[in-house]
């Protein structure tokens, strides 16, 4: 490299607000790790999608469409459902844009340190795709809370409003990134928008998790023999909500406190996958809960708690796991003789 070119490159790097550019482990390294974890979660989602369509071939069309929208490998198991074929696959599109952005950084502009401050168009698109996947999952849980809370409109509408605002922030963020094209310029003008989007997403996660925990706990108090099922639901709800919320908060903290690296973006790559896997895992969990229910009622004895479980609709809205109440009555009459011996038993 000529002395003039070297001086020009050094000058460009010196003026970059991202002083990180001389430490690739926190820039390209974090992006690469984020991409690898994202790909791993995509594989997990594929397995869960196949399992879902195998276990629930007769699930509600809108639920199956939602799963297909997030990832449609299970179409191989459902060839008759042609309505799914025209749906855009969010997870595939997200993975493609993540790796397109990494290809831009690691291959096309390899060893071009000054380019790290540039925002590839593919990276900007990942922001909006993540928000779209997130709002689908949030709306799914909003409906579940609405039905579980016996039509609590206030709570459901609050979740929907916050989720829509989060999507709006993501749209503004993606548009600004496409227009400004540099991280330094974006931070100077739209830092608050991206922060607000992540904050809203975290708030929705906390609200959904807290609401589900409260509703499930209230149901448990009125339960007679299904405590183990409700306890499983409570634990699983807490785990799923904590994982997605923790990833979002971690990305927001890195964005606000680490102005000189791209760790926040590596974390942001996996958020979409965590939400999708959380939704699928929630759907698949119904299979084990159904088996637990069947084991609890297999002896034919009346279980009045099944009526309560049906009313509160713990499981996916519209999907009934309860059978019509059956009453088993046994009558025994024993007659004793004068000497106390048994003469007859009916």
From TrEMBL:
- Top-level taxon in the UniProt lineage: Eukaryota
Q: Where are the transmembrane segments?
A: 31-53, 122-141, 153-180, 192-213, 233-258, 264-285
Q: DUF6534 domain location, by residue?
A: 201-286
Q: Keyword Disulfide bond on this protein?
A: no
Pfam families given in the database record? DUF6534
Alphabetical keyword list: Membrane, Transmembrane, Transmembrane helix
Name the UniProt record assigns to this protein: DUF6534 domain-containing protein
